[in-house]
Amino acid sequence: MVPSTQDAVRSLVEQGETEHLVFVASHQTNGRGRQGRVWHQEPGQDISFSVLLEPRNRYPDLLLPMLTAAAVYECVAKHLMHTRHEARIKWPNDVLVDERKLAGILIEAEGKKLWIAGIGMNVNRLEFPKELRAKSTSLTLLTEVYEDRAAVLAELLRSLVKLVTEAEDGHTEPVVAGFGKGLGLIGERVVVTTSTDTHTGVLASVSPGGVVVGESRFSPGEVRALVRAGGGD
């Protein structure tokens, strides 16, 4: 049990640890999500871990959100293969099933070169705080099977290692393709929201080089939301 896997990895960096470190916690007491939100976790029921990565010149920093989301999506999709449920990536890197949040990702910079990617997934929990009940879910609630957390973690790490290896070998295409599949919006009419405006058009492509909607291109870093036109988020 630790307050936060992100902070635990940060402390290990200060002690000299380098890339590819994975820190797994059975329970976090002070987990956090994006934009200062709290990440709720049920003791002994869910998965929380953080990975230390260093893109160097091997792949763009902006590939990381896509890479981690694609890995989580791939793992979840395999678990739901024989169910009526479908997973999707919600921009930039949450994974939803039936429009309820199953997994979240937080990526934080550590110094000038290192990044810490924290991943939380609801696995076996059956109850959520009142304010989250209508918008959260877990693998067990979806599959009606009590999951082996170690097996789920191993499968998720295999997906992550596969995509990290591709990226470090200079092959960004599998990452971009995996993210695009999970996003499910390529070729659809979408609404892009930035800090200053909204734009509507057909989503042509998404990559670390930009989000292309119609004839407009946006840096992934400036896109606050990317949703199907008329379909909410």
Walkthrough of the structure:
The structure is a single chain. This protein is of the alpha+beta class and 233 residues long. 27% of the residues lie in helices and 27% in strands. The chain is built from 5 helices and 11 strands, in the order αββαββββαααβββββ. A hairpin with a 3-residue loop joins strand 3 (87-90) and strand 4. The two termini are 34 Å apart.
Please compute the radius of gyration using only Cα atoms.
Answer: 17 Å
Strand adjacency order, main sheet:
1-2-6-5-4-3
Low-confidence stretches: none
Query: Total strand count, please?
Result: 11
**Corresponding CATH architecture of the largest domain:** 2-Layer Sandwich
Q: Total domains, how many?
A: 2
Give the structure's gist in a few sentences.
This protein has five helices and eleven strands, in the order H-E-E-H-E-E-E-E-H-H-H-E-E-E-E-E. The protein is an alpha+beta fold and 233 residues long.
